[in-house]
């Protein structure tokens, strides 16, 4: 039987701890020095193992912070109304959210145009941060029309995040998605715990009830932990 190299042994040990769930997403991998001492090997050997695990998508290395078990990728059909709490739960991770900002104000001109609001309309302006375990999963910036959804003014969002509450409580008839890639700003990077300039996936959505605009939301995800998919068939030719 072929002898297992030290590199392969370290790789299998760490990979096994991750895939078995012993080291869950967000778990901090022992530092290189600790692994070097544990396996009585060079730091270069450990570094090569961690690089290989990073390339395989099992861990992520954060500057000045160390290496961590990576959150599994999530994916959604482009035309779905996404529920972030359900996304996190599907990963098997504990979910929590924080409302970081909330205020009632007059809608600005861009919001009035986007949601077909009358002059002097009021909106509820919300900011929310979603977590999978203790790792930031998504930033949510949402405006809710108080003409279309007056009950939102009295909702404190203590047990349900805004998106889940809207999806479960407010009927809608149409939605529009806009998807883009951006580089994380200094503020966004701090909130998502990523490096400034890191790629992020942004989904902007508006929903209506007939011609009445209900809400517009901007969801920002770390780009290395989320993807969108669409399944479709070729249209039938009429010729």
Please tell me about this protein's structure.
It is a single chain. The chain is an alpha+beta fold. The chain folds into two domains: 64 residues, Winged helix-like DNA-binding domain superfamily/Winged helix DNA-binding domain (Arc Repressor Mutant, subunit A, Orthogonal Bundle); 156 residues, Chorismate lyase-like (Chorismate lyase), CATH 3.40.1410.10. 27% of the residues lie in helices and 34% in strands. The chain has seven helices and ten strands. Helix 1 crosses helix 3 and helix 2 packs across helix 3. The longest helix has 14 residues. The radius of gyration is 22 Å and the shape is elongated.
Q: Which blocks of ≥5 consecutive residues have pLDDT under 50?
A: 235-239
- Rounded to the nearest angstrom, the radius of gyration is 22 Å
* Biggest sheet record: 6 strands, antiparallel
Overall mean pLDDT stands at 86
Helix content: 25-40%
* Sheet with the most strands: spatial strand order: 4-5-6-9-8-7
How much β-strand is present in the residues? 25-35%
SSE layout and pairings?
Elements: H1 6-19, H2 32-39, H3 43-55, E1 59-62, E2 66-69, E3 74-77, H4 84-90, E4 95-106, H5 109-115, E5 122-132, E6 135-145, H6 162-169, E7 174-183, H7 186-192, E8 199-209, E9 212-222, E10 226-229
Parallel strand pairs: 3-10
Antiparallel strand pairs: 1-2, 4-5, 5-6, 6-9, 7-8, 8-9
Helix pairs in contact: 1-3, 2-3
């Amino acid at each position: 039987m072929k002898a297992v190299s030290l590199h392969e042994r370290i790789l299998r040990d760490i990979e096994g701890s991750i895939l078995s769930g012993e080291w869950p997403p967000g778990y901090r991998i022992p530092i290189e020095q600790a692994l070097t001492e544990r396996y009585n090997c060079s730091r270069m050997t450990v570094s090569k193992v961690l690089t290989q695990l990073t390339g395989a998508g099992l861990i992520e290395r954060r500057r000045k912070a160390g290496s961590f078990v990576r959150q599994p990728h999530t994916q959604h059909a482009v035309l779905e109304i996404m529920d972030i709490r359900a996304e996190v739960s599907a990963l098997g991770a504990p979910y929590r959210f924080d409302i970081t900002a909330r205020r009632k104000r007059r809608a600005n001109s861009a919001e009035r145009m986007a949601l077909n609001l009358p002059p002097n309309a009021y909106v509820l302006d919300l900011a929310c941060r979603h977590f999978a375990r203790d790792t930031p999963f998504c930033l949510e910036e949402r405006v809710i029309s108080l003409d279309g959804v007056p009950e939102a003014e009295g909702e404190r969002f203590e047990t349900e995040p805004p998106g889940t509450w809207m999806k479960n409580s407010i009927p809608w008839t149409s939605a529009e998605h806009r998807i883009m890639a951006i580089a994380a700003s200094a503020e966004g990077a701090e909130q998502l715990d990523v490096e400034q300039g890191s790629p992020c996936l942004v989904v902007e959505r508006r929903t209506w009830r007939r011609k009445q605009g209900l809400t517009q939301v901007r969801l920002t995800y770390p780009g290395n932990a989320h993807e969108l998919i669409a399944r479709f068939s070729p249209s039938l030719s009429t010729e």
